[in-house]
Amino acid sequence: MVMSTTLKVGPEERVRIRVRVNGVWYERDVEPRKLLVHFLREDLGFTSVHVGCDTGHCGACTVIMNGVSVKSCQVLAVQADGAEILTLEGLAKDGKLHPIQEAFWEKHALQCGYCTPGMIMETYFLLKENPEPSEEEIRRGLAGNLCRCTGYQNIVDAVKLASQKLKELKMTL
Ligand code: FES
Ligand code: FES
User: Fold this and answer.
1) pTM for the full model?
2) Which of ligand 1's atoms lies nearest the C-alpha of 61?
3) Residues 6+ apart with CB under 8 A from 156
4) What is the DSSP letter of 2?
5) How far apart, in whole angstroms, are the C-alpha atoms of residue 6 and residue 8?
6) Alpha carbon of residue 105 to chain centroid
7) Distance CA 75, CA 78 (A)
């Protein structure tokens, strides 16, 4: 038997959700139709999570949810109830950039920077799953993240450098 998962609330009603973002629990009432990207930006103030297309194509809104990269414009906030989420704001520690951020900086892997938070979070997931990816694996891993500026080569170089840095630091993601 197929069970219906339809939310039994109207568009004007609100649903209480709890999410843990960058190690901190937040509890808020949200409209059932609100997208996770808008919840993170507008309700919680994590403005690194960019809106590029709102249709799942550009990857600017990428975050890590329960250990997996997701395009947060493709997830409803209510679907994230109880989830653990990591955004770019959660990477730097004690005023020091994360090695992936350092690598993007050192390889000049950005111009306007609009795609960068999503690129970095997708890189985080890629290197978590495959700490020493080949160039082809990097390009395939970032295929869902679009950049209008860089031509991608410096981004690929940054991912290689990030992999090297994490290995040297013996740092797991
Ligand atoms: S804003 Fe989510 S994929 Fe473009
Ligand atoms: S740096 Fe401008 S879109 Fe990527």
Assistant:
1) 0.93
2) 2
3) 135, 138, 139, 142
4) P
5) 6
6) 18
7) 8
Q: What's the gap in Å between 152 CA and the centre of ligand 2?
A: 9
With 90 as the cut, is the pLDDT of residue 2 above it? no
Question: Do the beta carbons of residue 34 and residue 80 sit within 8 Å?
Answer: no
The partner residues of 26 in beta bridges, in order of sequence, read 19
- Give the range among 4-13, 34-43, 86-95, 113-122 with minimum mean pLDDT: 4-13
Residues 149-170: pLDDT tens digits?
999 999 999 999 999 999 999 9
What count of Cα atoms within 13 Å lies in the side-chain half-sphere of residue 125?
25
In the chain, which ranges are E strands? 15-21, 24-30, 62-65, 68-71, 84-86
In this structure, the residues whose C-beta lies within 6 A of any atom of ligand 2 are 110-115, 147-150
Q: Are residues 91 and 81 in contact, defined by beta-carbon separation less than 8 angstroms?
A: no
**Which ligand is nearest the CA of 75, by number?**
1
Tokens of 155: 């981004």
Spatial contact of 123 and 162, defined as CB atoms under 8 Å apart:
yes
Pocket test for ligand 2, best of 58, 108, 120, 149 (most atoms within 8 A of CB): 149
* Inter-residue contact 161 to 107 (CB < 8 Å): yes
